[in-house]
Amino acid sequence: MKYIKAPTALTMAPYNQRELKLNGFSVVESCTHTVNNKGAMYLEEHMLLFVKQGVNILKDGKTEFVVRKNEMVFLKKATLVEYHKTGDTDQDNLYISLMFFLKDEFLQDFIKMANIKSVHTEERVRILVKPVNERLLRFFESIEPYFNEPENIDAGLIKIKMLELLYDLAGTDKNLFQQLLQMKQPVRTEIPEVMEKNYTSPVSLTELAYLSGRSLASFKRDFQTIYNMAPSQWIRKKRLDKAKEVLENTSMAVSDVCYTLGFENPAHFSRIFKEHFGYPPSNLRQQKA
């Protein structure tokens, strides 16, 4: 399944979703009539998803989040999630959601502004789908008119609205707000766990270090100790070995295997596959035919 980068690609063709944007965050509105819309997106920033109409089933690895009408979930950046949107059958299969993408810098500025004392913990806060209370519903409604004339909305006003969102979350949902605080200083995670979960994602070394709760230098040092090779070398070998396994045991097309395992494009995938194994991936597909 080919992924898209969010929020970057969401406002481009063929998605053409409406966006409010300011340095530090963006808000993307998804409004469509759909019975069965599936895909995958790589989160470039932390994302708070609010579903106003319909249902969105998100998968992060083996974990599934079912977000229904007037519910929300908060997911951290550098995550590859699969989505399955279905519209409300009583409303002509209408699906509407708001996606709030927040940069680390904006969260940190808010924590300083609100004088919030974050407490470091070794225990990861559990990600939960949460019902949206009346206070937050009114906030989400107040954002929607801005999409009709984004060029006439002052950037300062958008920033105030985003700060209002964070204050509302801080005041109404302790679990979700703890997630926000934890984004500032991620829980330290074992490197093998991070790598096994993310080797097919388009993550950079800096993002892998972030996900493991380490500095880049510490991540590289610890990785070398565990695997006795560089992270990029390990990821390439892991993807190629997995690609060979999938081609030998399934009927997936070469292009589908390419995108599912995070390679740039089929031509690049075929070239490095042949360099590694001595024959192109099409040979395995011909053997299956």
UniProtKB/TrEMBL annotation:
It holds the Pfam family HTH_18. It comes from the Bacteria. Residues 189-287 form the HTH araC/xylS-type domain. The keyword Nucleotide-binding does not apply. PANTHER family: ARAC-FAMILY TRANSCRIPTIONAL REGULATOR, HTH-TYPE TRANSCRIPTIONAL REGULATOR EXSA. The lineage of its organism: Bacteria, Pseudomonadati, Bacteroidota, Flavobacteriia, Flavobacteriales. This is Helix-turn-helix domain-containing protein. Keywords: DNA-binding, Transcription, Transcription regulation.
